[in-house]
């Protein structure tokens, strides 16, 4: 209950204070390449319930792989900056406010990857709301580079990165508290400010 109250207050304040940044980013995305300002995608949320996640669109509207590998040619000029500064994640404050996400929690995955979760970890990871940041996000902030170095990026994600992220997410879900959340938020902000 305390965690949800914190999410509502923090997300509401964030949206209120950052609306000029959100507006400027949306306009920039629209001017930089054809397509919508927001990217919407179905992810798996708490208790396995699907929901629509919102981000600023950072790629050209074109078919492609579900994972981003290195300097993906689909990434736009605006998208490059938004990804580096993590500003592309700001629309998820709305997802937090509406209750689909939390500020801190396991990053929500695509349904096709959730199908790969081992049963013993699936229940634990999906027992909490997914979040904008978590220990796995911090540990794998260089994920695109790791995938770029792999001979088969999709296989690398499924067999190496996803299991490691799952273990971190399951550990978080087992010991989550407001104090650990505050620590992860501060660590994320430090990482973003360092670039």
UniProtKB/TrEMBL annotation:
Entry superkingdom: Bacteria
Keyword list, A-Z: Transferase
GO molecular function: phosphotransferase activity, for other substituted phosphate groups
Domain (Bacterial sugar transferase) ranges: 3-193
Pfam families: Bac_transf
Protein family membership: Belongs to the bacterial sugar transferase family.
Protein name: Sugar transferase
Native species: Roseateles puraquae
Source species taxonomy: Bacteria, Pseudomonadati, Pseudomonadota, Betaproteobacteria, Burkholderiales
